[in-house]
Known about the structure:
Structural class: mainly beta
Helix content: under 10%
Order of helices and strands: HHEEEEEEEEEHEEEEEE
Strand content: over 45%
Strand order of the largest sheet: 8-7-6-5-4-3-2-1-15-14-13-12-11-10-9
Number of strands: 15
Number of domains: 1
Largest sheet: 15 strands, mixed
Oligomer: single chain
Amino acid sequence: xxxxxxxxxxxxxxxxxxxxxxxxxxxxxxxxxxxxxxxxxxxxxxxxxxxxxxxxxxxxxxxxxxxxxxxxxxxxxxxxxxxxxxxxxxxxxxxxxxxxxxxxxxxxxxxxxxxxxxxxxxxxxxxxxxxxxxxxxxxxxxxxxxxxxxxxxxxxxxxxxxxxxxxxxxxxxxxxxxxxxxxxxxxxxxxxxxxxxxxxxxxxxxxxxxxxxxxxxxxxxxxxxxxxxxxxxxxxxxxxxxxxxxxxxxxxxxxxxxxxxxxxxxxxxxxxxxxxxxxxxxxxx
Length: 285
């Protein structure tokens, strides 16, 4: 079933008027203790074509998903998870390396959600390339985002701002995990404010234009079509829990195709040869 952008918007409007607004997300995956409590992280390797300077570049992207405990005041991993006030969060690290002619991009993006309710409470982004280094971070504090950025661009070398997001606001860069917590089979269409990707070297403005999300069952799983200010994305997820991301077709032509999905105590596997676990079909004891 193909849905045009205008058709999707019309269907969305009729749906909104037909039923009261409610969250399209569920806490089932957040509370899937056997998934989070096995002492391992989920590592996904994607064969990717990333758009840089109008060209698709063959590369590899890694997503590392794990539960950890946050220190109560600092919003970083707690040295002692038993310390008073510490609480569990879900962390997704996206590791992106893109060759671009005579140099390359090394980028990272981290998202942190409270495990109790799935609220995004922190993000951090780095871009390292031959032009320089940029770092961005946002922390949710009393319902507002405290956003800081340090970049190599004139006019945005240092940014410090506080922005209150609209109700139901989402981040484009959190979608690979956030959409896995959809209430699959019960929600087919919803609208939400969506911040554009912050994986770049510039100090972005925190602004959430509206986006439409359409969820469809497919023979192999689920497809989520996201129609947003810059175009259309299509993400496909496994049919069964924990609904891992398998493909991501982005608005700019970039494509992520899963080549390996494995659970690993990756922090222990740092010796020569341990990269074998990232090869397609490899297993871990």
